Protein: Serine protease inhibitor 1
Amino acid sequence: MNPFFIFITAFVVLFTYVDADQRKHKCKRPEIWEDCGGCELKCGQSDFAPCALRCNPPGCYCSPFYGLRRDSSGKCISKHQCPTRKHLNAPEDFILETDSVTYRNISEDSMKFRNITS
Structure:
């Protein structure tokens, strides 16, 4: 049997199975279904945010492998669409950066400013 034909057949079967699984769980685009939910990133978190090696509950997740993040309204968006946090007392051309580890509970020590005009 032709190896190319076997490869194409296997690819079609796998793609059909994955697509059927996604439709069965009805995740909103661009979310994906995960039986063993991993580490979903939120806007403002680093790609290298710590992640426990355990399964989260099964469900629809934003996949960080596709550059997606969960925004504050719960939507799954590209990390480039995430809003930047501007500090109220900072000059207009400065943005506030936070340490990804302290994203949910920001302390003054974890804040720093970066000039975005230079």
In short: The beta strands are 32-34, 59-61, 68-70, 76-78, 94-98, 111-115. Helices lie at 3-25. The chain has two domains: 3-83, 84-118.
